[in-house]
């Protein structure tokens, strides 16, 4: 290297930084007591070009990090654009693994969810950190237009979501961006003690089925300081989710924060213990929505919810319980079926802002299983259209109203 001959004539301080720079690119260096497995040392190239080799290199780096028993290990992806085929990072691993993404990972332009639901999947790992501030680019624009009709067609062929975690425990995702997924962005299934912070998720407001974070069969989770703007739900909370705390979320555009749909299939499990607080929803279709299938096969419940300190900015339907959910005309006729999902102990408190339609509060509970213990307090939603003021619809709802409530015409049973 020519620069070596320059060393005698430059300052010691420069030398210090010079060696710091060199050592950080060394093969599998130790760093803060962690062993670092840099994907470049396995042959990965961050040149943005399509290749099949990167997936192999990433897999090898992961396997070495995962099997490293000398201490914590880090898989390191430096700056650059790394094209990456569909990939699975499987455990169990020997110790804590950190997966640091500094650069951009580029998905294949077309990728169906035939083999696996996600482009990048982590499975069976305990003690995992994913960080680095890098970008997952799902390149969804190549499939949204002509391949993704799952919003209209129940028998559609699903495309791969950006990233999935299943059977992962004690993990955190801290600092990551996910853009333009083909279908959903984050898919969490059967995770436990799992935290997501400082994550930014974006896709155009008119991109189909690009849910932000989907969660099912999971427990003990915290989602905080995230910003999500997509063409579908910001967060979708599906069956079997318990003890989930969501705070400091900015949501919009999109369909809002959704619970369900639940109740369609027999083997589904209840949803319990969900908190959403200190969040802002802006320009979304719904704000806080709970939806259960009208034609339901399961008798489970949705309970112990708290929605607190939420600002709505121009949200079409800020507060919704819909127990008549039945898309794709699967219910013969509207109103024919009554959901068997029991909704109980749901508290809405300190929710304010603007509604883009008059229908600011719609609680349409099941005739067969009326909602129980619904509590409304300090709600102030306004509508700025020329047609009048906000309205409330409350059907088959049992519970209480406290403090100032606008719209105030909700009669509880
Ligand atoms: C994960 O962390 C827990 C708690 O510190 C520890 O008991 C367990 O052995 C760790 N497992 C792995 C694979 O690192
Ligand atoms: C997740 O956050 C909660 C609350 O801050 C904390 O108690 C828990 O240890 C965190 N878990 C992980 C895996 O970081
Ligand atoms: C979230 O952001 C707030 C304000 O910037 C900060 O005080 C808090 O520590 C952050 N929480 C996490 C878990 O990053
Ligand atoms: C307002 O009322 C007019 C006349 O009834 C109706 O055509 C229009 O759709 C209404 N607009 C909204 C935003 O509800």
Automatic annotation (TrEMBL):
Record's signal peptide: 1-29
Highest taxon, organism lineage: Eukaryota
Entry keyword Signal: yes
List the subcellular locations. Secreted, Cell wall
Catalytic positions are 255
Task: Extract the InterPro entries matched here.
Answer: Glyco_hydro_28 (IPR000743), Pectin_lyas_fold (IPR012334), Pectin_lyase_fold/virulence (IPR011050)
Give the record's keywords alphabetically.
Cell wall, Cell wall biogenesis/degradation, Glycosidase, Hydrolase, Secreted, Signal
Q: Which family does it belong to?
A: Belongs to the glycosyl hydrolase 28 family.
PANTHER family, A to Z: PTHR31375
Full protein name: Polygalacturonase
Native organism taxonomy: Eukaryota, Viridiplantae, Streptophyta, Embryophyta, Tracheophyta
